[in-house]
Amino acid sequence: MKVRVLFFSVLQDITGTAETTVYLEGENANVGTLLDHLFQTWPSLSDWAPSLLIAVDQVYARRPDALHDDAEVAVMPPVQGG
């Protein structure tokens, strides 16, 4: 399964990119599977794990939510006021 991942704000600094493509094995991949993969690729990203906001195809999602081929997943830090 191919998933397009977008990183926002400080997460772009951590990953060194605004966007990447991730290939996940199996048909039952979910947000948690993807996050585990991202944390292995960028270990310092896991420091943000408790507060990350995730959206799949522009709808907020949680770890157990299923992914589909060609999903667009946004990974965002917590929203900050100003």
- Biggest β-sheet: count, sense, barrel? 5 strands, mixed
Secondary-structure element pattern, one letter each? EHEHEEE
Q: What is the mean predicted local confidence, pLDDT?
A: 95
Q: What topology, given as strand order, has the largest sheet?
A: 2-1-5-3-4
Helix content: 10-25%
Distance between the termini: 38 Å
Content of β-strand: 25-35%
**What Rg, in angstroms, do the CA atoms define?**
12 Å
Number of helices: 2
DSSP strand count: 5
Query: Any low-confidence stretches, pLDDT <50, length ≥5?
Result: none
Principal-axis shape: globular
The structural class is alpha+beta
Write up what this structure looks like:
With 82 residues, this protein is α+β, with helices and mostly antiparallel strands. Helix content is 21%, strand content 29%. The chain has helices spanning 10-15, 31-41, and strands at 2-7, 19-23, 53-56, 59-61, 71-76. The protein has a five-stranded mixed β-sheet with strand order 2-1-5-3-4. The longest helix is centred in the middle third of the chain and has 11 residues, at 31-41. It is globular and about 35 Å long. The model has no long low-confidence stretch (mean pLDDT 95).
Features:
five-stranded mixed β-sheet, 82 residues, 29% strand, alpha+beta
Topology:
Blueprint: E1 2-7, H1 10-15, E2 19-23, H2 31-41, E3 53-56, E4 59-61, E5 71-76
Parallel strand pairs: 1-5
Antiparallel strand pairs: 1-2, 3-4, 3-5
